[in-house]
Structure formats: C-alpha cells, structure tokens
Specification:
about 120 residues; mainly beta; 4-stranded antiparallel β-sheet; 7 strands
Length: about 120
C-alpha cells in the first residue's frame, strides 16, 4: 500500500535534530490506537510502515522550533481516505500533523489528526 507523507515547511517549523526526536510505538487498525499520535509538544516528521500492505505504522515525532507554538485546543480531523476514496488528504493551512487514525483491513483508510501551529 503506497502511503506517502508530504510535508510543506517542515524544515522551517520542526526541530529535526535526531536527539530531540522520538518514535511512537507501532500501531495498526487492530488493537490499541493510543499510540497513533505524538506526545504533547511534538508533531509528525516521518511515518514508517511495516507488515502486509504497510499496515503497521509508527510516527517519528519532532518538537517545534522555539519560534513556533502548538495550540492544543485547536484541532482538525480529516475524513477517512484511501487509495480508493480521495487518495490524498491534507491538514488545513496553519495546521500540522500530530497523529493519524487507521481503520479497515490493513490500515486501508486513514484520517489525519492536525493541530494549529502559530508563529510566536
């Protein structure tokens, strides 16, 4: 399954120094979905997948650079999408990815979890 993360302005907003980044645990549509988002103060920088049809996922999370502030009360959730439905989805302008939620066989449908990020 061809899952691809495209990020606009990631270098401007995220501090991707390796020592400041952390991975979530693996998750899929099966079982506990509590691992499907970054810790508070972090945003998704990368997604890694494994397993049949790329259905086991984990997120590589990075803190924002000091000039940016995450507004945790300002969230947006996209509709579920897949290769068969829409095929592409994005966070609204000013919002950045902090998590994803899967459903359907092989994590075939995904919904993005976005949060507002402001320049301080």
């Amino acid at each position: 399954d061809g899952k691809v993360l495209l990020y606009h302005d990631a270098d401007k907003v995220l501090d991707t120094e390796a020592s400041k980044m952390k991975w979530t645990k693996w998750f899929s549509q099966e079982g506990d979905q509590d691992r499907n988002h970054c810790d508070p103060g972090y945003l998704v920088a990368r997604i890694q997948c494994d397993g049949n049809y790329c259905d086991n996922l984990r997120l590589h999370c990075a803190k924002t650079k000091p000039a940016y502030t995450i507004e945790p009360s300002k969230r947006h959730r996209t509709e579920y999408f897949s290769e068969d439905k829409e095929g592409f989805m994005h966070c609204p302008a000013g919002y950045y990815l902090f998590g994803i939620k899967c459903m359907d066989n092989y994590c075939g449908e995904i919904s993005l979890r976005c949060v507002l990020v402001k320049w301080s």
